Amino acid sequence: MDISIFTDKSKIPAESDLKLALDEYFKTWMQIRGFVLDHYPAAVDDWNYPGLKYGWSFRMKDKKRAILYLLPRKGYFKVAFVFGQKAFLKIMQSPVSGKIRTELQAARPYAEGRGIRLDIREVEISDVFELIRIKLEQ
User: Contact, 37 vs 43, CB < 8 A?
Assistant: First the structure.
């Protein structure tokens, strides 16, 4: 089952918990968080607990929408995005990996857009940064 490593609703994960859980990927988590804040200093981040089925996730958002979600797992994490049609079209023309474009193309479109979850162990951080740039432009 693919759920957060943090499932105790009564305990919001602390940075020390995250560092321990993510091991070598903690640095990457912090790089992604820093990249968002560098490019959108007004970003608000918070931990979200939608229920036991998902556990704790970390959300970064602007005034009205989520920029991205970071989903902690044991020894790594996933990064999740939802892209509207304009951003989707821009990504299809971008230099991000073909695997990401294929996954996004295959994602079911909803009213809020197409959502993808990327395993940080399987993607280049430069692709994640490009996706963040595109998301922030929309």
Answer: yes
CA distance 93 to 110: 21
Residue spans of the domains in the chain: they are 15-137
CB atoms within 10 A of CB 58: 22
Instruction: Name the pTM for this structure.
Output: 0.93
Q: Torsions phi, psi of 70, nearest 5?
A: -110, 125
**Angstrom distance (rounded) from CA 27 to CA 23:** 8
Residue 90 exposed, middle or buried by CB count within 10 Å (0-12, 13-18, 19+)? middle
Per-residue pLDDT tens for 34-60?
A: 999 999 999 999 999 998 888 999 999
Please answer whether residues 90 and 136 qualify as being in contact, where contact means their C-beta atoms are separated by less than 8 angstroms.
no
Does domain 15-137 bear CATH number 3.40.50.1820? no
